[in-house]
Amino acid sequence: MDKLQFKPMIVLIGMILLGNANETAFSQSQASDGSVAAITNKSSTLPLDKIILPPGFTIAVYAEVENVRSMVMSPSGTLFVGTWRNGKVYAVKDIDGDKIADKKWLLASGLNYPNGVAFKNGSLYVAEISKIIKFQNIEQNLADTTKRVVIYDKFPTEWPHGWKYIAFGPDGKLYVPVGAPFNIGIPDDRHASIFRMNDDGTGLEKFASGVRNTVGFTWHPMTHELWFTDNGRDNLGDDTPFDELNRAPKAGMNFGYPYYHSGTIKDPQFGGTHKASEFTVPAINLGPHVAALGLKFYTGKMFPANYRNQIFIAEHGSWNRTKKIGYRISLVKIENGKAKGYNPFATGWLNENTQVPWGRPVDVLILKDGSMLVSDDLAGVIYRISYRSK
């Protein structure tokens, strides 16, 4: 479950020390285009040498953005990022093409948990808890984003699981989740579901139900089927239930919440007479309470061929286990459209001895050159993972 308020105080202190990499950036003089430097010396103290990757892979800081959460890249190379509790949205650009961001713009502030960002036809879409706002012709107006429109404002206002990941699907529609407004309970028709709408906010329809809290989804590059993560309920113990990776090839599927978890675990309070066969089982179960968030199919050519069309998942990390797990990037192997394996890809953000994390991955994004960006809301940076064969 993705709840920062339950983290131990020492983790919050760590976020202050490490995560505010961009806090002082806007005290610097802005350039004539309204930007500031995308990297300062704040991130130089991050222990990147602790990150363990497969041979041939390297990791570096791409940009500093405090509380960075979801990411989307425009076709022309502007990276847009949402945040969580600080209510800001940023744009980041690598101007000189050296694979490190140079400039950063503050596009909006004072928003209500603007976690999700999406891009279509020159416009940036931002998801707040109860509404979707649109910035038209955003790349021509990075220094002046006062012109914005609300395209939909009727989503529920509850804060628990109310922050949203959004993305445009292959059908051109904007997909928007609404999580359950509690740990466990019977949700109404407006919650625990994934919705979709037209890009002007019209035509809202429910796509999937029985989804407790998804903060990441993507589409298979060949079949165009929706795949999404879902955070399992709490208070059933350290090892149950599991977080889920789900596959939704069509609309109208029900994934079990709150009656069944992880495909086979009947909820002791709400399971009642329900049977597991009533619901769609996960494509694969992930770790228990790892807080699986953003995910992408690998569609690049930089990484070795065996990574092609496999799924990378950002695991934000558990707050509610006796021994913490997650805080990593995991890899799910896909064969013939089915998930066949689940293993760590990048680890090291959690100190296993002290059980104190210094970073928490949130989202992943595959770049045109085949490298991968990873956002980290605790360290306050975006990493770039690249590969070079020996």
Q: How are the elements arranged and paired?
A:
Elements (H helix, E strand, L loop, with lengths): L8 H11 L16 E2 L19 E8 L3 E6 L4 E6 L5 E5 L9 E6 L7 E5 L2 E5 L4 E4 L13 E4 L14 E2 L5 E5 L14 E5 L7 E5 L7 E3 L6 E5 L13 E5 L4 E2 L5 E2 L3 E2 L17 E2 L6 E6 L13 E5 L12 E8 L2 E9 L3 E2 L4 E2 L3 E6 L5 E5 L4 E7 L3
Parallel strand pairs: 14-18
Antiparallel strand pairs: 1-6, 2-30, 3-4, 4-5, 5-6, 7-8, 8-9, 9-10, 11-12, 12-13, 13-14, 15-16, 16-17, 17-21, 19-20, 22-23, 23-24, 24-25, 26-27, 28-29, 29-30
Q: What is the H level of CATH, i.e. the homologous superfamily?
A: TolB, C-terminal domain
Low-confidence segments: 2-27
Quick one: how many beta strands? 30
**Relative helix content:** under 10%
Structural class: mainly beta
CATH level 1 class label: Mainly Beta
Percent range for β-strand residues: 35-45%
The fold-level CATH name is Neuraminidase
Q: Helix tally?
A: 1
Number of domains: 1
